[in-house]
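DM between two lab members

TW: hey, do you still have the DUF2157 domain-containing protein entry open?
JB: yeah, one sec
JB: this one, 332 aa:
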Amino acid sequence: MRKFDEQSTLSLYEKGLITENQFEEVKAYRNLNIFSVNAELKLFLYLSVLLFTSGIGILIYENIDTIGHIAILSILLLVIAVCFYYCFKNSKGFQKAETTFEHPVLEYLVLLANILTCIFIGYLQFQYKPFGEHYGLATLVPTIVSFFCAYYFDNKSVLTIAITGLAAYIGLSVTPQDLLNGNDFYASDSLSYSAVMLGVLLIVWTIYSNRISLKTHFSLIFLTFALHIISIAAISNLLHHYVLIWLIFAGVLIGSTFYFYKVSYEFKAMSIYVFMIVYGYVGINIVIFRIFENVDFSNIWELFVFLLPAYFVASIVVFIKLIKNFHKEITE
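TW: and the structure you got?
JB:
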C-alpha cells in the first residue's frame, strides 16, 4: 500500500499536477507513519449501539415478569427522549445538502434513538395494541419516524432502517437471507409486482431528489436497495410455470440490468456494477435453460459435460476482465 501511494504521488509530480515542494512535503508527511483510527472508532461505536439495543431486548425478555410492561415502556421512552433531545439540541437542523454533526458520537445517538423507537412501538403494539388489528401501522409509524430522522439528521444508517421498514410494510423482507429465503415471490405474483414497484419507486425518488438537490449522497443507498429488490424478484419469477409471466420478468430484468449499468458509470459505483453483472449473468443462464428446456439433448449430453467447465472458467475470466475495465474507466 505504501509503495502504491508513493507511485501515485510520483505520477502526480511527473504530470505537473503538484509542484516539487508539494511533492517533498507529501513524502515527508508519509515518512511520519501517521495513521487514522477514525474508521475503527466508528466501528466500535456502531457495535456499541447494536450491543446496547440487543442487551435491552434480552433484558426485557428475561425479566418481563418482574419488571413489568409499564416500567419497561417508561424506561424506553425516557431513553428515547433524552437521546432525541440531545441530538436536536446539537444538530444544525435540516439542510438539503450533506451535513454532519460536529461530534461523530451524535450520529450514533440518532441511530440508537431510532432503533429504540422501533422497539418501543413494536413492543407497545404487541402488548397493548394501540393500533388495534392494523399491524401494518406499527410498521409504518417507525418507518415514517426513520425517514424523518434520516433526512433531518443526515444519517445513512437510519435511512437503511427506513427503507427496510417501508419494504416490510408492503410485505417484503430485505435482509440478504430473507431476500433469498423469506420472500415467496414465485408463489405470490402480487408480492413480485409489489417488489418491482417498490424498486421503481426508489429509483423515481432518487431521480427526483437529484433534480432538486435533496440529499443527493443518499442516492447510492436507494439505488442499491432497488437493484437487489427488482433483480431478485425478477430472477425468482424466471422459473414461473406460466410462459407469459417469466417472459415479463425477463424483460424486467433486462431493463433493470441496462439501467443499473448506466447508473454504475454515472455514480462510479463498483458495488452496483458487480451485482448488476451477477444478476444479469444468473438471469441469462435461467432464460437459456427455459428456452431449451423442452429440447432433447440426450444425444449430445457428453458434449455439454465437456463444455460446462470451460463455460464457467470463461465466465470467471470475463467477469474479472469487466471489473478491471470498469475500475480503470472510473479512475481515469
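TW: got it. Confidence is low (pLDDT under 50) at residues 174-180. Residues 108 and 132 are 33 Å apart (CA to CA).
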